[in-house]
Amino acid sequence: MSIRERLSGNEAAAIAMKQINPDVVAAFPITPSTEIPQYFSSFVSNGEVNTEFVAVESEHSAMAATIGAEAAGGRAMTATSANGLSLMWEMIYIASSLRLPIVMSLVNRAVSGPLNIHNDHSDAMGVRDAGWIMMFSENNQEAYDNLIMAHRIAENKKVKLPLMVCQDGFITSHSIENIELLEDDVVKKFVGEYNPDEYLLNKNNPIAVGPLDLQSYLFEHKAAQAEAMRNAKQVILDVAKDFEEITGRKYSFFEEYKLDDAEIAIVCMNSTAGTTKYVVDNLRQKGIKAGLLKLRVFRPFPAEEIAKALGHLKAVAILDKADSLNAVGGALFQDVTSAMYVNKKEVPMVDYVYGIGGRDTKADDIESVYNDLAEIVKTGKIDNPYRYLGLRR
Amino acid sequence: MNDLIEIRWHGRGGQGAKTASLLLADAAFNTGKYIQGFPEYGPERMGAPITAYNRISINPIRIHSNIYEPDYVVVVDDTLLESVDVTAGLKQEGAIVINTTKDNDYIRKVLKGYKGEIYKIDARKISEEALGKYFPNVPMLAAIVKVSKIMTDEELLNDMKGSFKHKFAKKPEVIEGNMKALEIALKEVEKI
Q1: Residue B71 belongs to a domain with what CATH number?
Q2: Which end of chain A has fewer surrounding CB within 10 Å, N or C?
């Protein structure tokens, strides 16, 4: 039986961590993810988990401590945002290259500078090539569900990669909303025990972790990481299937919302997908065939599947909540357009950089994108595909 | 009750507008509704103007933006009336509830011809009488429930009793006062 609750996104993440009951949590507080280690440390103090909580002095140490814990053979988690992730940067790559299935809750916030504490995706986009599995969450429910599924994916023998679950800072992290929780024992059974093949504290099979890796092997090791990322795709689907059996909630690489018969569509991630669904419903009532592709799994990037899902459309807008400042468009736009080209799908596509630094994204803003798409379909003209949404001029 | 009710709270940092929006979300949740309760975080300081929001619906809520065309507005501090456009976007068929002792002519003038219903309540008097301290958020919570009819008086009182027991587990002496503040506020909120 599921438990009807109302929780903020941060509470939902902390409760998922409590139910997972990892061996080690190491974290340093940073807005807007601070509440996650805060709530979790109270679970530790109250004896509700057996976790060793390491109150480190920086995010670099938080990642280093989770790396140490995972290398030793434990299950480790952390949470951070924005500049906290920036400070972890060096260790982020170490974690993935050592093939340590650490799970992180990333509450997305703009990376400084100038200093801003509000939501965009510049923190996540900065580590998109770091070899982590990256999942995005529309609301508190998905932040919770993705965390419950995370260890099963990350720890799979064919994967062994770290994984981050993203949600929008403040917009979902600090909003109280309805949620369906699983019973503790159901989560425990679903997540299972962590039994790594090789680990530092196994005296019967001593190993070295992190030695020098020069011209003769580093290339092969990187290729192995890449293969693990490809393998993760099937594992993500398998775990989602098992999760659906216990919850009835269906997950895949992305959610197609009224996309089948749509003529125009938006591709976006996290909370904006909820606002977009609201707009799609309104437009459908007016007879406009609008749809949405909400990307859940950004790494590994499901290129072939996305191309297949978008191939029939007459025009598509990609919403990027981070600007790549490369003079051509945001990261999601680049990935989706590349996926379409490689899979021989020719659909007019435009990019909107939006919501930077917490700029609120209104239903009207989303509707204006669909209006633009309708215009593109009508005239066949795009002019500039690299656009802004909600920018003051 | 409409499918979706949207409420905007205006207060000052430290007065508990955010807490009131979360308590309202809690109470509506407990009557079986879908809810959102969220503050708009700016520079958080005691006394600075803050905004908080509620969405309450019989259906799942998916929209994730601030509220620009609320059904109801609650003003926890009447010193905001001259500095913040509290009726911005407020629906004409909606209502505004203000914590104030100012006279009705002043209120009408400062709301610049807002045509919907205007309610006022003296949350300071109620809070000081019931609690011996000035915490306007609990009377304002009762006032908005009364005006918006999101739930019945009994539903609110029963639910808040449970919430206060939980919230004030370490300060049980304030539970009775808060309950009294709710009861008085339900009776005293008045349409001008």
Answers
A1: 3.40.920.10
A2: C
**A292 bridge partner residues:** A257, A266
Task: Give the residue extent of every domain in chain A.
Answer: 3-247, 254-389
Per-residue pLDDT at A149: 98
H and E: helices and strands count for chain A? 12, 15
What span, in angstroms and rounded, lies between the C-alpha atoms of B74 and B71?
Answer: 10
Gap from A382 CA to chain B (nearest CA, Å): 28
CATH topology of domain A254-389: Rossmann fold (3.40.50)
Cβ contact (<8 Å) for A176 and B36?
yes
Say if A378 is an interface residue toward chain B (CB within 8 Å). no
Is the confidence metric ipTM above 0.90 for this complex? yes
State which residues form the domain around B134.
4-191
In this structure, are residues A12 and A40 in contact, taking their beta carbons and an 8 Å threshold? no
State how beta strands B95-99 and B72-75 pair.
parallel
Give the sign of the dihedral formed by CA A81, CA A82, CA A87, CA A89: positive
Pick the CATH number of A3-247 from 2.60.40.10, 1.10.260.40, 3.20.20.30, 3.40.50.970: 3.40.50.970
- Is the minimum CB–CB distance between A122 and chain B shorter than 8 Å? no
A254-389 and A3-247 share a CATH fold = yes
Sheet (strand A176-181) strand order: A3-7, A176-181, B34-40, B49-57, B4-12, B72-75, B95-99, B117-121, B190-191
pLDDT digit string (tens) for A164-189? 999 999 999 999 999 999 999 999 99
Closest CB from B25, B60, B64 relative to A176:
B25
Residue B14 — very low, low, confident or very high, per pLDDT cuts 50/70/90? Answer: confident
